[in-house]
Design goal:
Elements lengths: L7 E2 L7 E2 L2 E5 L4 H6 L12 H14 L6 E2 L4 E2 L4 E2 L4 E2 L4 E2 L4 E2 L4 E2 L4 E2 L4 E2 L4 E2 L4 E2 L4 E2 L4 E2 L4 E2 L4 E2 L4 E2 L4 E2 L8 E3 L4 E2 L4
Parallel strand pairs: 1-3, 4-7, 5-8, 6-9, 7-10, 8-11, 9-12, 10-13, 11-14, 12-15, 13-16, 14-17, 15-18, 16-19, 17-20, 19-21
Antiparallel strand pairs: 2-3, 21-22
Length: 186
């Protein structure tokens, strides 16, 4: 379950290395890296839509997108985790939970039983999702938020940090507060 890090690609390539691994250049190198035998890639991009876009490009090139799980994370044997998803330190993924492709379950987040986390969604650090919650594709649930059981949150929405979500949230909106309320569009 371990990989050798060959390096990173970064379109801005501002640094020569990151955490001891070399920055090889921009994303234009990906086809040649694959041709040279680099078969797996991890998409480490915070923007949900950009992570999804890059992930799909990597899959089209033939790359494998492994699931990355920190050793201190607790994952139920009945949970499913999609390719390219990342589960960070001290996160909990409960019974029959389903994590979508390229999703991030960040440090200390709790994804309880029967949750469905969409593709490229981001569950922030310290978030607590009660049982039966549905989180849409590319949605961000901000740090320290709590979501009551059986809530549905649509695609491309943002839940502000520290929010208490007690009612369904439609797609494409930003909510915040306790209880969470829709914020005006900018």
């Amino acid at each position: 379950g371990t990989f050798e890090v060959v390096g990173l690609t970064d379109p801005s390539a501002a640094d020569l290395e990151v955490l001891g691994s070399p920055v090889l250049g921009g994303d234009e190198l990906l086809p040649s890296l694959y041709a040279q035998g680099v078969a797996s890639a991890v998409v480490a991009i915070g923007s949900n839509s950009r992570r999804q876009q890059i992930g799909r490009s990597l899959l089209a090139l033939g790359f494998n997108l492994p699931v990355v799980v920190h050793p201190s994370a607790l994952i139920s044997p009945s949970a499913t985790i999609g390719q390219g998803a990342v589960v960070m330190a001290r996160a909990v993924v409960g019974t029959l939970a389903s994590i979508g492709e390229l999703a991030i379950i960040n440090t200390g987040a709790i994804v309880e039983h029967d949750n469905r986390i969409g593709e490229s969604a981001h569950i922030g650090p310290g978030v607590a999702l009660a049982g039966g919650v549905r989180v849409g594709n590319r949605t961000l649930v901000g740090v320290g938020s709590a979501v009551r059981p059986d809530i549905s949150i649509g695609d491309d929405s943002i839940i502000g940090a520290g929010s208490a979500v007690v009612a369904d949230v439609p797609s494409g909106v930003t909510v915040a507060g306790a209880p969470a309320r829709k914020l005006p569009s900018r």
